[in-house]
Specification:
The chain has ten helices and 14 strands. The two termini are 14 Å apart. The chain folds into two domains: 152 residues, 3-Layer(aba) Sandwich (Rossmann fold); 107 residues, Hypothetical Protein, Haloacid Dehalogenase-like Hydrolase, Chain: A, domain 2. α1 runs parallel beside α10, α3 packs antiparallel against α5 and α3 packs antiparallel against α6. The radius of gyration is 18 Å and the shape is globular. Helix content is 33%, strand content 24%. β7, α4 and β8 form a beta-alpha-beta unit. The protein has 274 residues and is α/β, with parallel strands linked by helices.
């Protein structure tokens, strides 16, 4: 598979282990790819504000399709290539669902990660405790998410809705699926919303086009249902063995989970290194 020119990686549960770290073996494998001239790109639901630590570990990772494909970014130049924001009506609908379910809304914009000040200390109540330290470090805290949305019209790329239980997010999905928004489950209780027609697959294709790379020259690795379109868009794909059956079934290969250097194994399979 020496014709692969770009490797797209999901972050949480794929590149990052359960401690939110990159293992030495994975880092070494990716450094070897960079030395060969292969682009290593982030394909993630994270926003730019949540990428700093990863970029310090992997300074050669120049490109990313962030916010589930809504934001194409050049890290080296600190430059946005493309953004696809949500409509104000869609943002308002997500906020209304959060009120009905007593869920926690989280906005991602071009450069900010925004949460409600009175909720950030209670991430465990929304099955999001693993992100507590990161949220406290990077998030902008506001008193009123509706007011923030009104003052940032056309600037919100994604709304994450962290529910108190899986049943709540199912109710929200059913209530919102007729709106046309792209809706994906993430983690145990999260429902993520972006603009219609946006997903990691469209993000990968748009980044590849910008770089002059054909989709069949791309490889991708992921672990969740929100990675499915990215795996389908790539010429070669691998799923972590921690992924749901539906995701593993779509991949060309299944590799160990993120606590057992799965990305390094994918690099070995795709490139003969790792």
């Amino acid at each position: 598979m020496n014709d692969i020119r770009l490797l797209a990686l999901d972050m949480d549960g794929t590149l990052l282990d359960s401690r939110k770290k990159i293992s030495p073996r994975v880092k070494k494998a990716l450094e070897a790819l960079d030395a060969r001239g292969v682009f290593v790109a982030a394909g993630t639901g994270r926003g730019l504000a949540e990428m700093d630590e990863i970029l310090r570990e992997l300074p050669f990772m120049r490109w990313g399709f962030l916010v589930s494909g809504a934001h194409i970014f050049d890290f080296a130049a600190s430059r946005t290539l493309e953004m696809r924001p949500m409509s104000d009506a869609h943002v308002a609908a997500c906020l209304e669902r959060c009120r009905r379910e007593d869920a926690m809304p989280h906005f991602l914009t071009e450069r900010e990660s925004v949460v409600r000040a009175d909720q950030i200390g209670h991430l465990k109540d929304f099955s999001h405790a693993a992100h507590q330290a990161a949220f406290e470090r990077i998030c902008l805290r506001v008193d009123d998410m509706d007011a923030y949305a009104r003052s940032h019209s056309g600037g919100i790329l994604k709304v994450c809705m962290y529910h108190r239980d899986p049943e709540g997010r199912v109710r929200s999905l059913r209530a919102l699926e007729s709106t046309g928004m792209d809706l994906k489950f993430s983690g145990r209780t999260s429902l993520e919303a972006v603009a219609p027609g946006i997903d990691k697959g469209t993000g990968l294709r748009r980044l590849a086009a910008f770089l002059g790379i054909r989709p069949e020259e791309c490889a991708a690795v992921g672990d969740g249902e929100n990675d499915l379109e990215m795996l389908r868009a790539a010429g070669f794909s691998a799923a972590m063995n921690s992924a749901p059956d539906s995701v593993r079934a779509e991949a060309d290969a299944v590799v160990p989970d993120s606590d057992h250097d799965g990305v390094a194994e994918a690099v070995r399979l795709f490139f003969g290194e790792g």
